[in-house]
Amino acid sequence: MRKVLLAVRVHPQRAYYFRRLVGYWGRSLSDCLDEALGMYLQDAREHGFGGKEEADRMWAKWGEEYRKKYLDD
After folding, report:
1. Could you tell me if 28 and 20 are in contact, meaning their C-beta atoms sit under 8 angstroms apart?
2. Hey, which of 12, 48, 55, 71 has its CA 20 to 30 A from 2?
3. Residue 10: partners with Cβ closer than 8 Å, 6 or more residues away
4. Cβ neighbours of residue 30 under 8 Å, at least 6 residues apart?
5. Which residues constitute the domain of residue 64?
6. DSSP-based three-state secondary structure for 7
7. Helix and strand counts by DSSP (H, E) for the chain
8. How many domains does the chain have?
9. What is the pTM of this model?
C-alpha cells in the first residue's frame, strides 16, 4: 500500500489510483495492490510519464519488495 501512495505523491494528477484502492478494502491486500499498480503502470505505458521501460522497472521492483515482505518467510 505504501508503494501506491508513493505513486500518488509522485503523480498527483493520478490520485484516482488511491481512490480506487480505498474501494477494495473487502478484498485481499494482494488483490488491491495488483489492481492499483496495474492501473498505474498501464497508464504510465499509455501516457508516457516515465515511459514503458520505467513502468516495467517499477513493476519488477515493487513486485520483488512485495514478495520479500509478504510472501517469503
Report:
1. no
2. 48
3. none
4. 66, 70
5. 2-71
6. helix
7. 4, 0
8. 1
9. 0.32
